[in-house]
């Protein structure tokens, strides 16, 4: 892929033009990425402390006991958003839903164990082990390209 950038002082708003002989998966992915809004901030509570969470520091987001938590190196932070609301705020290239109650950061995955029948075991870098529900196995396999 060739990339060309032209600087024009008279240009008011950046414009992207793609010149290609055919539409490919790579072109579609590029268009999708360019059209996405930047990831939004997330705020989490840990006791009386409210902290702005960097998405790159989050291992997983999960629901437990009617509450939603973000797990980081510093521990779990309670969020005031529901998982479906978080899906719209998270970077779609890094985060993927693995069950009705959990979203993981693909950049924080140590490995996937495919030996379990009907499901996938996910090991995160912080030594947390979780499982992809049967409903989301096909989606995870598509994301991983297997």
Could you explain the architecture of this structure?
The protein has 146 residues and is α+β, with helices and mostly antiparallel strands. It has one domain: OB fold (Dihydrolipoamide Acetyltransferase, E2P) (Beta Barrel), CATH 2.40.50. The chain has 3 helices and 10 strands, in the order αβββββαβββββα. The strands form 3 sheets. A 5-stranded antiparallel sheet has the order 5-4-3-7-6. The chain has a 3-stranded antiparallel sheet with strand order 8-9-10, with no helix packed on it. It has a two-stranded antiparallel ribbon with strand order 1-2. The chain is globular, with a radius of gyration of 19 Å. It starts with 24 loop residues before the first helix and ends with a helix.
Helix content: 10-25%
CATH architecture: Beta Barrel
CATH superfamily: LytTr DNA-binding domain
Structural class: alpha+beta
Report the portion of residues in β strands. Answer: 25-35%
Mean pLDDT: 88
Q: Strand order across the biggest sheet?
A: 5-4-3-7-6
Question: What name does CATH use for the topology?
Answer: OB fold (Dihydrolipoamide Acetyltransferase, E2P)
From the spread of the alpha carbons, the general shape counts as globular
DSSP summary: helix tally: 3
Q: How many structural domains can be distinguished in the coordinates?
A: 1
Q: Separation of termini?
A: 25 Å
| Biggest sheet overview | 5 strands, antiparallel
Secondary-structure element order, N to C: HEEEEEHEEEEEH
């Amino acid at each position: 892929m060739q990339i060309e950038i032209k600087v024009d002082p008279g240009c008011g708003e950046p414009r992207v033009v793609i010149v290609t002989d055919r539409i490919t998966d790579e072109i579609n992915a590029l268009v999708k990425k360019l059209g996405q809004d930047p990831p939004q901030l997330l705020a989490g509570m840990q006791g009386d402390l409210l902290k702005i969470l960097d998405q790159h520091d989050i291992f997983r987001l999960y629901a437990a006991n009617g509450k939603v938590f973000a797990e980081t190196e510093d521990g779990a932070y309670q969020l005031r958003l529901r998982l479906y609301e978080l899906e719209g705020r998270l970077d779609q290239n890094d985060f993927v839903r693995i069950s009705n109650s959990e979203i993981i950061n693909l950049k924080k995955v140590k490995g996937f164990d495919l030996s379990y029948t009907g499901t996938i075991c996910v090991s995160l870098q912080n030594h947390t082990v979780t499982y992809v529900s049967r409903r989301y196995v096909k989606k995870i396999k598509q994301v991983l390209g297997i």
